[in-house]
Amino acid sequence: MTPNALPQRLSSTIILALAFSAPAWAKTPVASGTGGAVATISEPASQAALSILNKGGNAVDAAVAAAATLGVTDPFSCGVGGGGFMVIYLAKEKRVITLDHREVAPASFQPDAFAPDGKAMDFDTAVASGMAVGVPGTVRGWHDALDRYGTMSFKQVLAPAIKVATDGFRLNDNFVALAKENEKKFALFPETATRYLKDGKALPAGTLLRNPDLARTYRLLSSGGVKAFYSGKLAQAIVDAVNQPPVAAGVSVRPGRMSLGDLANYESRWRQPVRSTYRGYELVGMPLPSSGGVTIAEALNILEGFDLHAMPREKAEHLYMEAARLAFADRNAYLADPEYVEAPVAGLLSKEYAARRRELIDPTQAHHHAQPGDPYPFQRDLSVPLRPASAPQSKLLSESAHTTHLAVSDKDGNIVAYTFTIESWGGSGITVPGYGFILNNEMTDFDFTGPHPNVPEAGKRPRSSMSPTIAFRNGKPAFTIGSPGGATIITTVLQTIFNHIDLGMDMPAALNAPRISERNGLATSIEPGFAGSAQARALERFGQHWDDAGVEEIGAANAIVFNPDGTVTAVSEGKRHGVGSALVQKRGH
Ligand code: GLU
């Protein structure tokens, strides 16, 4: 189809009629009660999960319903064009299992994909390209989760999302801000520009946006199942969009080389979670290829040796930042897809190794750059991986900070913590023509140049930061937490746990507190309004300093607390990302 034909065909898909009345979504960021609970960043998504719980669905059914609806209302963060990580707690069996449905590099992918002349290419050029697109894993993940642990069909769980895509939803300020940020990228791809821009500018807040193409895609899955995505016409449309990106006249972007075989062969992975302990809690998180679980565990192991409770807040926060810095130095150096790289995970998770790392912290003075440590002597088993031939590099990748996270629990105590993404806001920018979803740019999560464990390779999954986490106490669920935000995901989850357990904040306060993200880069990321505050000045006295480009919110976390009296409290953002939506099946204590 020529680019010129697109606007006409799609014009009926975008309804600007403000007179049409969409459901009024009133958001509540905190809700307590009994039965199932859900927290997402989108009211329609939380409502979708609740409706599935009320129909007798379990947490897995409800999580997929919420995720599919987020694909409609938050199409710049997530959707069937991307991938994700799900942590599932099965109450009856007291078992946690994780589902990796991360995008993989097509079989044609080469290590120099992002450095054709030996030099890393410009990040934004790499993002808006067919080459940035990994084989999407989301639909396979939803299928596998439902198939093994759900009770409902695609048809049942996709129904609420199909309704929102068909009836439309009103754009809020947050949506508009994200579309504005993407005007340049979306303008490259008419199918995307037509849907989300008008005369090259983001649609105004209050616009009623429908996505009948995505409703059709979901209906295809409802009737044809997972195969309808990974083979046939839809698969061909994905391959075409990747290999010949449908660009505006005069635009050229780098094509990818994805085949129908890449889609047909895509597999998710059931993986054992990363387990660690922290002050009487057991934390269960996402293993590689996400670096989230290991890095959070290492930082907490380092922090555990300090009596944080007895300290002034600023000193405890200084130590939190230093622990994060050290854990990130290791994360940046060692972690990558475990099917391609023997990462020294047991060493990184060992309490003895953490004790060595802790010795490097000066309780009165910030380090400005930490070197990776040597975890190999702490592997303590016979399967010690070979040390890499060259000293590990510890670099912080240029990466963007997006995605979405949702938390669901059901009346039987099953829990799902689910983070999924299309990588950058607006992914690669490429909408699959006629199918209404944007393709990811997950391949830019690889290191562009090596040697490094996380360089591109055919069939490899790029290292992630996604950190869906469940915490247990005395064998019972205590809380679950997760967030979007690229590598800041790790610090958001870590800091919220630290705020809650060490600073004694209740979960809403822990989640709403200003976020401080130290990732062993040049300076610490902070949010608007933090610099100059008493809290910031107190930390500056330890030599901490801030990235003054820090003008964005960090993360958009969602949590559920399982209270000792048997009630549940769903907690979403009280301020960030346009306020989140927390719901419980039966309100009140
Ligand atoms: N691509 C990121 C990751 O896997 C998530 C996207 C983001 O939040 O920026 O860690």
Question: What would you call the shape?
Answer: globular
The protein's oligomeric status is single chain
Fraction in beta strands? 15-25%
Major β-sheet profile: 13 strands, antiparallel
Class from helix and strand fractions: alpha+beta
Query: Termini separation (Å)?
Result: 57 Å
Sequence stretches where pLDDT stays below 50 over 5 or more residues: 1-25
Q: Which cofactor or ligand species appear?
A: glutamic acid
CATH architecture of the largest domain: 4-Layer Sandwich
Helix percent band:
25-40%
Instruction: Provide a count of the helices.
Output: 20
Fourth-tier CATH superfamily name of the largest domain: Gamma-glutamyltranspeptidase, small (S) subunit
* CATH C-level category of the largest domain: Alpha Beta
Count structural domains.
2
Q: Work out the number of β strands.
A: 20
What's the average pLDDT?
Answer: 93
Rg: 22 Å
CATH topology descriptor of the largest domain: Glutamine Phosphoribosylpyrophosphate, subunit 1, domain 1
Organism: Massilia eburnea
Active site: 403
Pathway: Sulfur metabolism; glutathione metabolism
Subunit structure: This enzyme consists of two polypeptide chains, which are synthesized in precursor form from a single polypeptide.
